Amino acid sequence: MSYLAVGLADGTVLLYRHLDQSLFSGSTSLTALPKPRTIHESPNEPITGLGFREPDEEISNVYLFIVTLNRVLAYQASGKGSGSTPTVVSEVGCGLGCAAMDRHARNMIVAKDEAIYVCGTDSRGSSYAYEGIPVVL
To answer: What are the two backbone dihedrals, phi and then psi, of residue 131, each rounded to the nearest 5 degrees?
Structure first.
């Protein structure tokens, strides 16, 4: 657990780095936690989902997906070029509880009334349209 992201209803995303080092340093004080970095602010868009994409054979960096009501963004959390502004990967966002990482933790899945969208670190990929009444579990 090197990273911890917190998304707030005011559109702010806080990122804690090197959290594992702070937790296992032997200190029991909460003041030993690293300071969070504000990586995204969007006052008109509450954060409705977050998900980390871990490194693998294809992509060697950690990415954080940020989901709002209106879009999905990707933030590079590690590697060369990390720390820059999150990039928009989809102009389709979703409500609270309607976004999740896929089973391999590679893509963000966004559910809307008309379709299910798959978002990667560079752009929106496949979409799966469906008919009928959506069921919320």
So the answer is: -115, 155
* Contact between residue 106 and residue 98 where contact means Cβ atoms under 8 Å apart: no
- Residue whose C-alpha is closest to residue 98's, from 119, 122, 125, 116: 116
Tokens 């309607």 belong to 98
The answer to whether residues 74 and 91 touch, using CB atoms and an 8 Å cutoff, is no
Do 108 and 119 form a contact (C-beta atoms < 8 A)?
yes
C-alpha to C-alpha distance for 46 and 16, rounded to whole angstroms: 19
pTM higher than the cut 0.90: no
Q: Digits of tens for pLDDT over the chain (137 positions)?
A: 688 999 999 999 999 987 665 555 555 555 667 788 899 999 889 999 999 998 888 888 999 999 999 999 999 988 887 778 999 999 999 999 999 998 887 899 999 888 899 998 887 877 778 776 666 65
Map residue 31 onto helix, strand or coil: helix
Phi, psi angles (nearest 5°) of residue 84 = -80, 175
Alpha-carbon torsion, ordered 16, 75, 11, 90, to 10 deg = -160
**In terms of residues, how long is the chain?**
137
